[in-house]
Amino acid sequence: MSEVTGPHLYEFGELPVPTVAITLYDVRRHVLIEDGRIRRDGPVHAGRFRIGQPGRSVVVDAVPEVGSGKLLLLYLGKALLKEVGAARGSAAPIALMDMAWDIEDPLLKMSAQRLVEASDSGQRPNALLAEQIAYTLALHLSDRYAAPGSPKSDRLPSLDETMCARVAEFVQANASAPVTLAAMAQVAGMTPSSFIRSFKRSTGLTPHRFVVEQRVLAARRLLATSNLPIVEIALAVGFSSQSHFGVAFRAITGESPARYRRLQRGHG
Known about the structure:
Elements: E1 2-4, E2 8-14, E3 19-23, E4 27-34, E5 37-44, E6 48-52, E7 57-64, E8 69-75, H1 78-87, E9 99-104, H2 106-120, H3 127-145, H4 161-173, H5 181-188, H6 192-203, H7 207-225, H8 230-236, H9 242-253, H10 257-264
Antiparallel strand pairs: 1-8, 2-7, 3-6, 3-8, 4-5, 4-7, 6-9
Helix pairs in contact: 1-3, 2-3, 4-5, 5-6, 8-9
């Protein structure tokens, strides 16, 4: 992530991998120089993005409209792009179009804002959520901006009720431990990229949302049947803090953990 505080010359050097840049501020003038030649000279509006190609040397001369702003850079490694390519029926890493700030993509903008907010809060983002965002963005980019000639996505592998139940059992058995996307996908016998899409289609939930809901369900049982302090329940079911637990619990149940406990015991 890069922060802009005024007119500046940015020397990114030679890009090692396909790189997605998403600006969250308006740029009055943005001069994009690739391999010593000016490729684009003009304004860029907040929410627009660029896909830079590996092997090109990049220099940017930016004059922002605002006093400060954030630019998010996503470096898409070969392993991730190869897995996304496999999900589309290719043995090679997926190739992305060469794009230079021409359109706005709401999903990329929203994801960038979410990652910036997590960074600004001073808290490390949940590992499962970070994994999920990475794969979701890679899948989205491959669906929308794959280079001409790239194979189309094949039919998704199915995730039946039995397999969904096995994944649920795995999550419940690891209530207090970090659950990774790779581990959930392994239970289902899928790659993470295929698992995300199949799981969402089968359950209507993202893997991260599913894990949060399972942990809130476990917490509801403990709140109703035990006298454990709420902070101990939060940690026991896998939340990093009582405040994180409270936000997630209220979002799913509509009640705070304390009020839910009182209601379950007949106290309004």
